[in-house]
Structures are given as C-alpha cells and as structure tokens.
Design goal:
alpha/beta, Rossmann fold, 4 domains, five-stranded mixed beta sheet, 23 helices, flat
Length: 548
C-alpha cells in the first residue's frame, strides 16, 4: 500500500483529484493534503510519502522551489507536477527533478490515473528489487558496513528486535555458538588539533583513517569493527568478535588490540587516545552491557595521572572519589566578580577551586566532562539574566564548547584547566561589555526612583534583585556616580524636601513627618537634628525670624 500527498493551494483541485483518482485500484491506502508548498514540505518531512502531486504556482513556497528541495531531501520520492499553464521554466525544473509526469489544469480522470499508474508501476518495481536478502528492510544502496553499524547501535541502544532481525545475524557473527563479543570505546584527546593540522578540517577523512587503523589485523578468528560514536564526535566504538573460543581469550586479545591501536594512531597521526574496554559476552545482545562497562571505564580514567595514550580494562580503573566538589557553590563569588568587572578575581576563584581537584587522589575524565558542561550551564544562566549571552551562541546553531568557539581538546589536567579558563574568558568579556552599556542607565533609573519615591521604605535589595547586581558593587557604583551612598542619597532627598515643607507655616510637623515617610514625629525630628544640627521647630523659627 502507498501514501500520496496532494500539494495545492486550490481546494477545488485537491477535491477533484481526491474524487477522480482510482486509489483503491492503485493500491493507495492514504491520501493526504497540503494547502501550500511550505505545509507540503513539513508533511513530507513528517510522513513517509511515496508519491506527491505538486502544483507549480503556490504561495509561500512555489512548486519549482519545492522540487529542488525534494531532490536533495527525498531522493526516493516520486513526483507528479500540475500546472495551470504550459510554462517552459516550470517544465524545465520538472524535467530536471525527474518527475514521473506533468499534468495541465483542469485535470481529467484519464490523464490523472494514467500518471498515477505510471508512478505506482515505478514504486512496485522498486519494492520488488528491495525484496532481495539484505536490502529487504533497509534503504536502497546502503553499504554493508553501514548496516552492521546500525545493527550494533540498535543492540547498544537496546532497541534490537532479535526475531525481526534474525536474517541479519550472520553479518555480525551472532548466528554461531561459541563466539564472544566485547566492546571498546576510544576517545581522541587531541581530536581538533589533529583534524586541523593533519586532516585539513576534513572530519570524514579523519574518521576513515581512525576506523581503518582500529579494523586492522582482523582475520577469520578475531575481528574488529569500528565506527564513530553518536555520543561524542571524539569517540569511536569498536566491536570485537572472537570466534569459537573462551571469554578470557576474547578479553586478552581485545585489550591487546586496543593498546596496539592507540600506539599506531599516535605513531601515524599524532593522535592521543584514552580507551575503555568492556567485558566479553557470548550473547551478542549483551554487548549493550559491555558498551556501558567500556564507557564507565573510559569515564573513570584518572586525568591527574594521564600521560599520553592509555587503555583500561573494565574493573581495573580506579573509581572516582565520592562527593566530588562542584563549582555550583563558587558561582555567586564568580558572578559578583564578573559584575564588578573584575575578571581576574573570578579567574582566581576558579583557580583556587581547581587546585582542590588537583590535590585530590583522583579526578576522572568523566568528572572533567561533567564539570565543563556544568560550568557552561551555570555561566550561561548568569549571562541570560544579565542579557549578556555570547554573540556566537545567539546567532549560531552549535551549543557547548563548539558554540563558544573553544577547543574541547584536553589530554592533561592542565589542559582541562585551560578549557575552563577559556570558557570564563568568553563569558567575562560578554558580561563586561553588556554591563558597561547598562550601568549609567541603571544608576539613572535608581536615582529617579528615589527622587519620586523618597517617602517610601526604600531597600537596596529592591535594586539588587531588579538589576541582578551585588549589594557591594551597586553601592560602589552609585557613590562613584553621585557622591552619595544609596541610603545617604535617600536621606538627602528627604531632608531637602523637609526644608521645603517647613517653609509652609500651615503644615504641622507631624504632617511633614508623614509626608516624608516618617511615621514617628520624634524619629523625624531626631533625623532632622542630626542632619542640620537643629530641630524642625528651631529651623522654622529661624525662617520666621529671618523673614522679619
């Protein structure tokens, strides 16, 4: 059965095609509709469409544009073009896009079903070819290594269905008893440097070279098959198969092969590796557990003692210390330093903290990875609150270190510290630029608020919460700008206003006290005396005597 999509902005034409098409006779079980090219493209991406009928003249995205996109994204999609007039440009694009047929409006039953039958014949011929052994359940022209990779990944991700994939088990040696399987994970510690210096930024060429080295020396007895890990671009997964032997032999040969691989990669390309190897199992579906052990072993390698390439077997890697300290508790201090424009002090706080890890007994690769991610998230939250998200992150699609333009290479604790320092540099620079432009307007806003609300109970926390500034830094900025601390300025505004109100003999001192925000007349009198060295009554008397 087939799925058809009609893409046309004219409802009458969509309805006519629905009515005129011999869908049941053609084996079409579902006919979907899209009201314009943009919607049509979304539905093509959402549904597995076998055949699309496309109107050439549509809003949003016209037929020519849609055909060009379909060529790239849906190479197996069959197309029938519909046009209201015989336009050569549309016809040329239709020919270039290898459409099945070209129909002119108004569409009649005979022409429509003739075009549909032609398309269905092509679909049936393709399905017949795909019914052969390996290509039965995969896309056309998929290579054997890619199929093996997909099978191994499905087992690792625990989505493999043994019954439905039984025909493919011989491809990975899972059809014979006595075979053992183990998984190794290799991490390239200086991947970005090697890709730049040795492979001219060609990622595919680098992957090809690495997998070739890992797969070397496979024979009829011991086989290694590798591919890039979906977990991280710097990691490669290797599946080791030992035929008709014992698990101990599989473990020994796999570890030996990984160590030899690490040595060869360093010798040929200057690649530094850290590797983890899982236990061997006789059941191929248990390589998921072997992979998890390999990953845990890799993550547990001690960064403090890492020198060059290293490979560890599961169970032989020292576990990370419990309750390892995190940067979370230091972030308020780092934030305060960044807000005050003191990036050097923020770096000093970071350095003091990393020294604790450096002096500990163990600090693993996994902890280093988690710390980097945590630091990016924590600084990102601060930057978001301060409207200081780095420009690269705002306009780019990449996140994390790549989005910040920072290399994720580190093969030692010192290089790990350098990565953290680079992250801090990026955010410190952006926060400094953002705050520099905002400080003047923030101070002006605070001063204006005090001028208009001097009679209220004004607390500094009102401003620190609103503008995400520390108390000490805000007080320093305000005094530097106006010569008064915030509390001092509130008092000055109140006292200036008090003098103005006392000049009106009709106002009682109690009324003036309340107008200024003092609910206690005596407290107002004491504050006035402290400020002007005389009481409100004495000040009023002086005004009266001076007026005589």
């Amino acid at each position: 059965m087939y799925k058809v999509l009609i893409i046309d902005d004219e409802e009458p034409l969509r309805e006519a095609i629905n009515i005129l098409g011999d869908w049941e006779g053609l084996g079409v079980d579902q006919v979907l509709e899209a009201t314009d090219g943009k919607m049509g493209l979304e539905m093509l991406r959402k549904h597995k469409i076998d055949l699309a009928l496309v109107d050439m003249k549509m809003p949003e995205l016209n037929g020519s544009q849609l055909l060009q996109i379909a060529e790239r994204e849906f190479p197996d999609l069959l197309l029938i073009v519909i046009s209201g007039y015989n336009d050569f440009e549309y016809t040329r694009q239709a020919i270039r896009s290898k459409v099945v047929d070209y129909l002119l409006k108004p569409v009649n039953r005979s022409d429509l079903n003739s075009a549909l039958r032609k398309a269905v014949d092509v679909l049936e011929a393709k399905r017949k070819r795909e019914s052969e052994f390996i290509n039965r359940n995969i896309t056309l022209n998929m290579s054997l290594p890619k199929l093996k990779e997909k099978m191994y990944l499905s087992i690792i991700e625990r989505s493999f269905k043994n019954q439905s994939n039984e025909a493919f088990l011989p491809l990975i040696g899972a059809d014979k008893p006595g075979n053992h399987f183990a998984v190794g994970v290799l991490r390239m510690l200086n991947l970005e440097q090697v890709r730049r210096d040795r492979f001219h930024e060609d990622r595919d060429l680098l992957h090809f070279a690495v997998t070739n080295v890992i797969n070397e020396n496979s024979d009829g007895h011991f086989e290694s098959f590798s591919f890039a890990s979906p977990r991280s671009e710097r990691e490669f997964i290797a599946i080791f198969t030992l035929k008709g032997s014992y698990g101990e032999d599989a473990a020994f040969l796999s570890l030996h092969h990984m160590k030899k691989t690490a040595s060869t990669l360093k010798e040929l390309f200057g690649i530094l590796c850290a590797g983890g190897l899982g236990q061997p199992y006789s059941d191929v579906t248990e390589i998921a557990q072997s992979y998890e052990l390999a990953t845990a072993t890799l993550d547990g390698i001690d960064l403090l003692s890492l020198k060059g390439s290293t490979v560890s077997n599961s169970g032989y890697t020292k576990s990370a210390a419990k309750d390892s300290p995190t940067l979370t508790g230091r972030m308020p201090l780092i934030r305060s330093s960044l807000e005050s424009g003191n990036a050097g002090h923020a770096k000093s706080i970071l350095s003091d903290f990393t020294r604790k890890w450096k002096s500990s007994e163990h600090f693993s690769l996994g902890e280093a990875d988690r710390t980097i991610q945590e630091f990016i998230i924590l600084l990102g939250d601060i930057a978001l609150e301060l409207d200081a998200v780095p420009e690269r992150l705002r306009r780019g699609k990449s996140k994390g270190l790549r989005g910040l333009g920072i290399s994720s290479d580190f093969a030692s604790f010192g290089e790990f510290e350098a990565v953290l320092s680079s992250i801090l540099d990026v955010y410190a620079g952006e926060i400094s630029r953002s705050l520099a432009g905002d400080r003047s307007s923030v101070l002006e806003n605070i001063k204006a608020y005090i001028d208009n609300h001097y009679f209220e109970n004004i607390k500094i926390s009102m401003f620190t919460d609103k503008y995400f500034l520390s108390r000490e830094y805000l007080m320093k900025l305000f005094k530097g700008q106006y010569g008064y601390g915030i509390h001092e300025y509130v008092q000055k505004v109140r006292m200036d206003k008090a003098k103005e109100l006392l000049s009106d003999p009709a106002l009682k001192i109690q009324d003036i006290s309340e107008r200024l925000g003092y609910k206690d007349k005596n407290y107002f009198s004491k504050a006035f005396r402290n400020y002007y060295d005389c009481s409100p009554s004495e000040f009023r008397l002086l005004l009266t005597e001076g007026g005589k």
